[in-house]
Predict the structure of GST N-terminal domain-containing protein.
Amino acid sequence: MSNEPILFYDIPSTAPGCAWSPATWRIRYALNLKGLKYKTVWVEYPDIADLCKRIGAAPSMIRKNGSPYYSLPVIEDPNTGTVLSDSPLIAEYLDAAYPDTHRLIPPGTRTLQKSFSAAYDDATDPVVSFIVPAVARILRPRSEEYFIRTREADFGKKLTEMEPTGEEYDVAWKAFETGLGKVSAWMKADEPFVMGDVISFADLVVAGEMQWFMKAFGEGSDKWKDMLSWHNGRWAKLIDNLKKYEGPAEETPDL
């Protein structure tokens, strides 16, 4: 097998370090954890579908109306001729194609990894009303317009009207804290990762989400500072434990 860098397709932002998407962060962590060579290719939101069709990446899902939905991450591995979308499938591929590297999905844990990801999404659903409007504020102009237009169609309301205010804000934010508390309770207090002291894909799911919150809310924001204090600082510790696998910060590409 040749040793060419894997092409890793990601969505740029104006946030520090450029990378922000929770789904793509899972694979960014994975590639660095495995020590694999890769090159980031930045793709604006409106260009994702055309890119995927051009390189042969499958849609990540099929909408209820039967239309394909294309999203990132996508990898293109010149060493094997593989083009793949959807972060769990990419993780499985990287384990199979590069078996001598760190296993993201240890043998016998595939169901655990998938179940954890689904349960995590359900537990943290209250954050949606906060994070979606925040994301729009860190995107570059072409992606920002696309994101706002499509998300407003999905949610049936203006993003500027999406974040709760007053008492509703406090209730929704507390519900998010409680949801993350459920996730924390699934893990032992004295163990840093879902599988104890072993880093697995489930940890990359959570850490990718934490990167999302940090970049979208802002590292100096009250929201992010509040989150870092929750659950005995578990989420701050997780980010710190995986910091060596973030890779180098990348610059926002020229407009």
Remarks:
- The CA atoms of residues 133 and 225 lie 19 Å apart.
- The chain has a mean pLDDT of 95.
